[in-house]
Specification:
Shape: globular
Distance between the termini: 58 Å
Number of helices: 12
Helix content: 25-40%
Number of strands: 20
Radius of gyration: 22 Å
CATH topology of the largest domain: Carbamate kinase
Amino acid sequence: MSYLEEQGAVNVVVQKFGGTCTESHDHQLMAAERIMECRDQGLWPVAVISAMGREGQPYSTAELVKLVRKIDPKIEPRELDLLMSCGEIISTVAMAHLLKSKGYDTIALSGGQAGLITDSYHGHAQIIDIRPHEVFKALQEGRIVFVAGFQGVTPERHVITTLGEGGSDYTAVALAVTLARTPTLPFGDELRVAPLQIFKEVDGVMTANPTLFDKGKGPVALSSLTYDEMVTMSALGADVLQHSAAVMARKHQLALVVKNFKTNAHGTEISPATGKPSGRLVTGIPDIANLILFSVPAEEGRLAGQLSGAMRNERILHYQLPADEGRVQFAIKRGKYRNVVSIIEHILFDRDTTAEFSEEAWGLVSAVGEGVRGRAPHVHSEGEQALRDAGIDVFGALDGDLHVSFLVTEEQRTEAVRTLHKCLIG
């Protein structure tokens, strides 16, 4: 009789390990320690693994893409997804093999094998169903399950798709939600699910990007976030969760914690218990680098709405700023330039007007927090004055329920983050 059958219940924890957690053998050993610790505590880990490392490192997604871009910059989205999925599969097999070498019974699954079913939108697919039969079977057999993040398959032909930048977060949240909504496993044992663990190389969600500050100065780790703060910060550049993952976690009120894989310190908790505002005015200063800015005439009536709707349909995250000098401005990530140009050309094909693109690079720097709710004008005024006092020009602004965002030149983005952090957080 297995351990699971003796206990009559399965205590599961979904753990997500980002690219830095698996980029070297030393880091893989640290990540393995987090998995083994959970096992020692009586939990059965389901580990979601990202591709190894970042651009410039072997087996990273960026390097895999370069292999084919060298042949020709244009590649069919279906084939590109097939290629990009390899990075996560490699690192997932490596981690499963590492734990097996230490005496644990493991299994490595691709996203499709783990039951992640998506629509057929290549490059930024959405999960439409989860059929985790292989995950359940592996848990029944007493195995530690490793799942390749960032990928799924279409329902009919099982074509591999990818879930967009940061898609391993989406994988982890989707699996955790599915397991949390499964009171008993098919083989009869009760299923209990611990809060999702998101492992990074920092001690939790930081008040700003620490790489923009001198060592030991500026950002600190937050002990908690509300769901709305998590979603807003993810949309405005903070390395919390992929935006789609954050929205799903909020929808299902999924408890999770963002932790440092090297230290396993307490981290940042996000759960229904952290739903009350903390009393702080501003929680974090996220930023987005190297944006492209384009504008269209404001007097063209529905044009701005059509463009925004088309970009949403193409799953392009964009930021629409109020009209300035008779033109509505949009900011987009540089990597989406070609996609947006195609949308503009299609919509403006029979119109006697054009979109104007700025030649400069831009940054969006935001102040986010529950304390901004109902006080956006005050935060806007205080933040803009601080920026101007620091000699930083503001070229546009966008206010929301939980945020105030300022458009600055890319050249001044880092100083803008530092200035707002000092002024609004301390």
